[in-house]
Amino acid sequence: MDKINAVMTVARVATLSDGGIRVTLDMSENAVMQMAQFVECKRFGAVLKAEFIPMVENEKTKENEYGL
User: Is residue 51 part of a domain?
Assistant: First the structure.
């Protein structure tokens, strides 16, 4: 599987009944390819390692121009 590169915002953070943590992320409607990659990960039960880099406002605008 290829690396997934996308700009996301945190929509929700919750604690599960077993003490686990669930984070829900939102992507733009232009992130169709990234969504397909996540669907494939879910389908095959892939475990993901993630690194999130906060962006300043002008970087968000630049990245969104490219549909990320």
Answer: yes
Q: Kindly state the greatest CA–CA separation across the chain.
A: 40
Q: Give the separation between CA 54 and CA 48, rounded to whole angstroms.
A: 19
DSSP state of 2: P
Check residue 1 and give its pLDDT.
Answer: 78
- How far apart are the C-alpha atoms of 18 and 37, rounded to whole Å? 28
Task: Check the CA dihedral 26-32-36-41 and report its sign.
Answer: negative
Question: Domain count of the chain?
Answer: 1
Structural domain containing residue 25: 8-65
pLDDT band at 28 (very low <50, low <70, confident <90, very high): very high
